[in-house]
Amino acid sequence: RGLPPVRDAAFYAKEAKEEAKNWRGYVKKFLGEPDLEALKSEKGLEVYRFIYRPSFSPHLCLTARKVKGQAILQIRRFSHEWKLELKGSVEMSDDTFAALRGEFARPEVCDPLRGMPEPERSDYFSGLDGATWNLETLRDGKYTRANIWCPDLFVGNTEAEKASFKKTHGFDLPDVFPFVQACLEFVRLSGLPLDASNYAPMPPRPAH
Fold first, then answer.
1. Is residue 109 within 8 Å of 135, Cβ to Cβ?
2. pTM of the entire structure?
3. 78-97: per-residue pLDDT in tens?
4. Residue ranges in the chain whose pLDDT is less than 70
5. How far is residue 47's CA from residue 3's CA, in Å, rounded to a whole number?
6. What is the pLDDT of residue 199?
7. How far apart are CA 112 and CA 84, in angstroms?
8. Would you put residue 202 in left (φ > 0), alpha (ψ -120 to 50) or beta?
9. pLDDT digit string, tens, across residues 96-129
10. Nearest to 104 by CA among 69, 132, 62
11. DSSP string covering the chain, please?
12. What pLDDT shows up at residue 197?
């Protein structure tokens, strides 16, 4: 039966490469969406995309971009059979689009796990049930993707819980609150709710 693979830097680099390949396949085959990372060379292209991937409910894809100078939020929701069940768009003002640009440019939003080492980065923020939140940004030839499993579960931790986490793992629990807030604002602009069966209301952030 053999031994389990050695979980070193090379192992996680291979895992990351495979995950990126699977992601591109998912976006193109199941959602019929373009691979944003492959469009980095297109001059002046600016796109922000949020994909909500619950385990047992329809997936939601929201894309903000400018079309002929008009900021548009494109909405697509898919059924369990991967059929497009909802398609629409919402016009946004230039100020709203600029606010999204500024928010999604923040490192704590576009790369909230940047200070988290492996193997914890892959193991702690990934899972089977629940929902995975993906936020992609493409601007000035630079592409980013934050891929976090159930980030709303890691919001609202007490100081004692944070201290316990650091004592156990040796590093601070990443603050995913800005990421969650930015994604929820994206959804709010679309006028659609997240699926109630797979999303519990986010607990309030502690004052301390």
1. yes
2. 0.81
3. 887 778 888 999 999 999 99
4. 1-9, 11-12, 15-16, 118-127, 194-208
5. 44
6. 43
7. 30
8. beta
9. 999 999 999 999 999 988 877 766 666 666 667 7
10. 62
11. --PPPP-SHHHHHHHHHHHHHHHHHIIIIIS----GGGGTTSTT--EEEEEEEESSS--EEEEEEEETTEEEEEEEEE-TTS-EEEEEEEEE-HHHHHHHHHHHTSHHHH-TTTTPPTTHHHHHT--SSSEEEEEEEEETTEEEEEEEESGGGGSS--HHHHHHHHHHHSSPPP--HHHHHHHHHHHHHHT-PPPGGG-PPPPPPP--
12. 43
Residue with structure tokens 């619950």?
Answer: 54
Token couple for 176: 């995913």
Centroid of chain to Cα 96: 20
Q: Are 59 and 51 in contact (CB under 8 A)?
A: yes
Residue 44 Rama label (left phi>0; alpha psi -120 to 50; beta): left
